[in-house]
User: Fold these one by one.
Assistant:
Number 1:
Amino acid sequence: MPADIAGAIAALSHLEIDRKPASVKAKSRDFFWYSPVLKARMDHLQADFVVSPRSEAEVIEVLKVCYAHDVPVTTRGAGTGNYGQAMPLAGGCVLHMRHMAAVKEVHPGRVIVEPGCLLKDLDAHCKAHSGQEIRMFSSTWATATIGGFIAGGSGGVGSCRWGALRDLGNIIRLRVVTMEEQPRVLEFRGEELPRVSHAYGTNGIITEIEMPLAPAYDWVEMFVAFKDFMAAVEYARDLTDEAGILIKLATPIQAPIAHDYFQRVKPYVAPGDNLVALMVAPHSMDGFLTFHARRDGRIIYRSDDNDWAKNPGPVFEYGWNHTTLRALKVDPAITYLQVRFAGDDMLEKIRKVSAIFGDEVLQHLEAMKEGGRTMFASLPLIRFTTEARLDEIVHIHEDLGCMVFNPHRYTLEEGGRQTVDDRQLAFKRQADPKGLLNPGKMIAWDDPDWGYDRMYAYPGMTAAE
Amino acid sequence: MPADIAGAIAALSHLEIDRKPASVKAKSRDFFWYSPVLKARMDHLQADFVVSPRSEAEVIEVLKVCYAHDVPVTTRGAGTGNYGQAMPLAGGCVLHMRHMAAVKEVHPGRVIVEPGCLLKDLDAHCKAHSGQEIRMFSSTWATATIGGFIAGGSGGVGSCRWGALRDLGNIIRLRVVTMEEQPRVLEFRGEELPRVSHAYGTNGIITEIEMPLAPAYDWVEMFVAFKDFMAAVEYARDLTDEAGILIKLATPIQAPIAHDYFQRVKPYVAPGDNLVALMVAPHSMDGFLTFHARRDGRIIYRSDDNDWAKNPGPVFEYGWNHTTLRALKVDPAITYLQVRFAGDDMLEKIRKVSAIFGDEVLQHLEAMKEGGRTMFASLPLIRFTTEARLDEIVHIHEDLGCMVFNPHRYTLEEGGRQTVDDRQLAFKRQADPKGLLNPGKMIAWDDPDWGYDRMYAYPGMTAAE
């Protein structure tokens, strides 16, 4: 059935609806433009209207009405995702969660919050309430929402201590509304969480989130400079391995990234300086400085003690995908990849990749815990030339035994492990029988036999004019 | 010079001095009797007098007077150590720290405390102040002091998350008084800490301690039963590897220990039941139960939900050296060892040891973090027959590549890595030039050429009457 946009808008007219083309366009976009591949394919996308519900009851109403009128619904938080997660491939309705931002309850070790709450507002609330903060957050902390982080993210600042969002214990509970004739409200815990976490809103709309908390400290933020990149990598790995030194970030960044792309850092580094960006708990500084003194690195910046002319801002805004953002602002030809370096030979793999690509692929790593070990999530900067060369770079990584999570794809599968997530697909069958939730993002729904031999192109995507 | 006991007592008569033989005898003992080897050699030991200072100034006075009168000084907290750490081999003065028990300051992530404070009092103070607690403690938490834990312990409940006391960051600062003509007061941090931590008071007296804190939670305590011991071991290891599930204890205990020695647990287990004792943060229970449901274990006890006729008390009082204590109470022929199982083949080594010894050595393991990996500190129960067989058991472990920290020795070296700790020896030369602090506990001081081919016997030890 074709979407009855006008009918849906009429039925929802008592809610906050935006139909102004310029602002609908703005609210139909995320940070997909980090990828030249996605930019070439998604730049024209635009919803028909945006609705901003104020309660779960209004979410239910939106889903019920859009179901009845066959209108696709794509949900967004702040739109800081990088894979077009929040972009409406087939037009229709963008469900904007900005008004559902209440922190409902804070307890020792956990918080209950609505999805539209900004990460920074959530942390501020928990800190003021009881000196707590969320275990991990994306580098877009200042602008991103907790719901978007869970639906579209995988980990971040804090993952060096707590692992990934998908790890047991890092999400406690999600409350989800389905898109059926009569939407249901479901509560997911434990084994049920992966049905809807990191599912881009393709199979349900998250209306309440329960997350674990950790103590909030006045983290000491630092940059440590190294002449040798692998020394920086070993430093970050070994520091992350120190169980008694509490850290929240350990980010090796290869030269000349800091010099070329970090404008407020540039006066203090040479082109050959590799950096490790760090966040260390203040009461762990003695242990940290003892560790540090055994190594070759040079602390060039401490947030609690420096004479820098300009405040560089939070060091985590130089890590995760902010590294790419800073490079992009200086050189629009830069893009990035997402590579997993793990196992006993991970340093050897990093060394090999560096040797193979040279300046075409500059390393930027994030220390994470995985299965009890320290590993690196890599978000290397890529000097983009052609899509074919980008694919080749991916394949060279894969041939070396490195898993790549391709950020130049808008589907769950291609950005993940290139296989169907049966739990997500099975739940979509129950929760979204018409396939109206964020259409085109789950290949398994559209084309179960897809072979992953080329980039998936959603047949229902709105054509560029 | 022979000790002038009478002269020292006279000079210290304005302090709290105990000379009553029965109570001096009691205050000259620790839990050395866990070891039949130590019991045979140390049971007769007794100081000449006990002094209980009320301040650092009084500690300085005691050390100055005893220095002048050549009186040995052995410091004790609560005397819960197991290696005779706090026992005066050569008589003289026992320095009892019970009156120096003040919690001086609590800050986010750290506490400043006097050494005589009981671990449980310290935790109660920090929890009431700001919902915090110490990162790790010995299973003697209810009776032991923080000073004794640092001077004589190595880790404990919490080490599965934070590693050992010796790991960087797990002690922040120690304030120490030397035993010289004019005692000095020194502050140690970072690389200087190992000079005096775990030194049994052989080279200085700790008068103030700064320790890191973690959030205090209402830990859910559990026993999980397994038919297969190695399944229990894998469960504990894998749970400790889950970065998102916050735990404070993971203790595999081989059958039939629970049935034979844990009287309040016995009604709920069969002789063949192996246990894992656990402490899990309440907000990690969902993640934990998800982990648990994937395994074969059966939760037989939850502190927050059970119908047991008698409260078994804290589960950590079934772990660490309380396992041995409970076995000893039932069967006085039981003693124990301390073995390190680490590395990629640690499970294979545990399997081998179990197969070699059968019931003569029952496994009891404690999950710990070490160098970024989960390993097991083992405190197996040994069915004691002869000292020669005990030594043989040690050698068989060592031949398998397992490091043994022999708890049947009263010296730092023999209970440790059987080598001189140069940092401790060098500091003793500065801080205790007459060698009066806890004499006989540091072989390197007495006999630098000692070969470790047999048990060290301190020549200055008071003879049994």
Number 2:
Amino acid sequence: MCRWLAYSGSPIKLEELLVKRDRSLIDQSLHARQGATTTNGDGFGVGWYEEGEPPRVYRSTHPAWNDRNLRELAAGVSSPLFFAHIRASTGTAIQETNTHPFRYANWLWMHNGLIREFSRLKRELVLAVDDSLYASIEGTTDSETMFFLALTFGLESDPVGSVERMVGFIEETGRMHGVEHPLQMTVATTRGDAVWAFRYSSEGDSRSLYFSTRMDTLKALYPETDELAGLSDETRVVVSEPLGDLPGVWNEVPESHVGIVQAGADELRPFTPRSL
Amino acid sequence: MCRWLAYSGSPIKLEELLVKRDRSLIDQSLHARQGATTTNGDGFGVGWYEEGEPPRVYRSTHPAWNDRNLRELAAGVSSPLFFAHIRASTGTAIQETNTHPFRYANWLWMHNGLIREFSRLKRELVLAVDDSLYASIEGTTDSETMFFLALTFGLESDPVGSVERMVGFIEETGRMHGVEHPLQMTVATTRGDAVWAFRYSSEGDSRSLYFSTRMDTLKALYPETDELAGLSDETRVVVSEPLGDLPGVWNEVPESHVGIVQAGADELRPFTPRSL
Amino acid sequence: MCRWLAYSGSPIKLEELLVKRDRSLIDQSLHARQGATTTNGDGFGVGWYEEGEPPRVYRSTHPAWNDRNLRELAAGVSSPLFFAHIRASTGTAIQETNTHPFRYANWLWMHNGLIREFSRLKRELVLAVDDSLYASIEGTTDSETMFFLALTFGLESDPVGSVERMVGFIEETGRMHGVEHPLQMTVATTRGDAVWAFRYSSEGDSRSLYFSTRMDTLKALYPETDELAGLSDETRVVVSEPLGDLPGVWNEVPESHVGIVQAGADELRPFTPRSL
Amino acid sequence: MCRWLAYSGSPIKLEELLVKRDRSLIDQSLHARQGATTTNGDGFGVGWYEEGEPPRVYRSTHPAWNDRNLRELAAGVSSPLFFAHIRASTGTAIQETNTHPFRYANWLWMHNGLIREFSRLKRELVLAVDDSLYASIEGTTDSETMFFLALTFGLESDPVGSVERMVGFIEETGRMHGVEHPLQMTVATTRGDAVWAFRYSSEGDSRSLYFSTRMDTLKALYPETDELAGLSDETRVVVSEPLGDLPGVWNEVPESHVGIVQAGADELRPFTPRSL
């Protein structure tokens, strides 16, 4: 099982959430607790935005915990919006092009979960990707296929609707091939402003997904915690598993919901797969 | 441009043709002369057969010349039939799954050349791969697509005919999309006994391909050369560019021909693309 | 903490002990139980002997469980004597030259444990390496330093005595620098015939080390187990942690002892550090 | 032979000098002309400074031209002072710890050239490294040894003098061991403000080294060239080989000289090895 983290808010150094001990994603990659597999050593990726720039992506097939370049990068780069993902392969090859986050134009996408019996469904799913997008598929994973299906179904103009259509299409395709529960996912996607985070599975028993509590609430709870002081009240972290041990920090996203972190009030809405 | 070598004959250590200085494939990878690009540093692969075993493949994304594991392997493994390939990417990602030789069941396949405007043609070509084979595609190259098309068109029962159909199909598809000269190739394939080596290009100006002269002829020419003494008269080497400087060793395969190295007399036949 | 395995006996494919599920070293590297660290993902190495050849070494910085080349190699190579090691770095860089087994001439060496405060002691220890050996040191680990000290102190002619002197020297050096318990080790070394396996630590509380029971005993215990049938009665496996679940297979080497697997009767002797 | 580049001046994106075609260091790494070896594919490194931060280093063992992460980084990072180095190994292992630039505290160091018969001299040279610095040596190259000798001899307070002592010491040591011309080097070092660039060899026939002409001169020569317009007049590039084809851009550093790029007037001084 993979793990991921999405950050949106006051610019911070990536290392704050990726590297520092006892509460970072890298620390989690060595000592997984809630994950289905015990280790996330099959590569990792980081995608980040800086003022007025397209997103940058750094991806590696080495375990995150022993990659020195990642530590340099995480110490050197500050960003108001970044994604990070550590991978435990469910079978596809360990290579950079299979490593999340995936990028298309200004969008990033990352996924924890799987399409069940993907090798049987793959051809039909990939065929549904729009002709103009097809050549941009670089890897061989179910996760990237989901991204390109969502793009095909309108991600850029209707993020929630397109993901609902993507899920609906995968479930229909899977069931036509006799797959009982075709999809398991927590997904995050962004175009550099808002972040959409989805929790859904065909069996109604999805992997975990958490939003951080609003910073003003956290600051009231922990007035003495310096690290929180500089963060804007709108700062939010979305994670597949909670980081660190502070009580009151994490709110679980309910089954079959999508959370939207955005300027103004965040949203939490039911998520319902749709037919095309 | 890539470079490759196919060996068939008396078992020898791989290092004889891959590693040793001044006449090996690795030496060529550093000092390319006839190639379209000046360096072949984008990975390499070796595939070999041993008695009664399926073929093994070792592939790496590092330059062949600085890979210590390759030297160990090449010193330790003897084989009567092996393929080796050094890659200069024409654009697709540098990853093991894009590295030749490709393998399916008992077959190996390697290619030097390209499908022109592959990103525009890819979808249509991949769609023609048989459903039962589709899930075995691991990478994203034109070369692997050619292999799976040949398999779809009957490689296992009719090697020459299937490659003729594969080329015919790619040329038709390319021309429908306005690509004047869709294909450039030298290809080698084997199932562990015979080796088929093809030289063809849509423009009738193909990259080079050479067969070694029969060993009995070579031994007559160079009676004092110890390295030749132990090799059976049927031993043959097929290469994209000549290795070493011995005159009389290499015979160029003519344009639009296929050579077959096999038990009994070898063959050299015209190669003509066919419609499906 | 690292893990390792030494095999001596009837030639078998490396994959039998390295790759196959539920009882292999690779499986252990994902699901460590007795280890001090929870994952061994910082590279691995295999060293093996074949008839009349110097030892070959394959080493990689990727996790053993996701290295395809290792699977190919382990399926293709049979050997009567091989070492395998999976690494969890205690701080030195993740690079092939820091990966076990280390090789010098016909000798292999691998280690689980550490020299405590190695960065403070390193200079003095490395200085004691014989001038003729110094240039052969390729990496930066405590483990390789131990190997070259043992070589300096006579490993090739007196394996047990030289390791006793190596340990004595490290303990003296450490204590002069105020390190209370300078050394923790299980070590295996071989020159292709016998295998020496040491269990020792300055604090008298060493990491685990196990020998397999003699095969004739195992065959009597498990007459129906096909995998044991073909193995000679002298076949032995030495491991840092037991593999698999068969009861009666593993005998723990006692604290401060060295076991010697050799032609004729194996030996188990007390191990006592010596002054130079 | 390696190649390197040092930039100091108006902040620019690293990709301007590292990635862009026909005039970049990466382009050079594929198509070496003045180098002793024909290809620089044995890894590369980049070190850069940003306002108020210690230097960051990104190093990889892959060829620079096919490293996607380098392209991302070079597009995302702007810096007023950076070093870049592409390596062609003269024998030591291909690993990140052997890749330039080397870093110690706020200093970076990179080198093109070699210590001749380094394996014979290494022990004596490394022994001279100050005890407090010894544990910071991470790799095994002659280049890093030179850096730590310079640090030992006072690099941080007297850059030119310390390098003169380092060179004097290596020459004395080499000659005692019968090495006629112990050292060949172009070296750049910096602590984030000035850049020191040395050209020296024991045989008085050093590898090339070039400084760019002052920008005000270049702007007068090429008033229509947009890329120069935004650069401060003090901006300078130092390179082992000229980049691009603009005439009048490059001034060769004379044999046995050191150039200093700094605030105020740059300097060019004779360089003379000194005894300790």
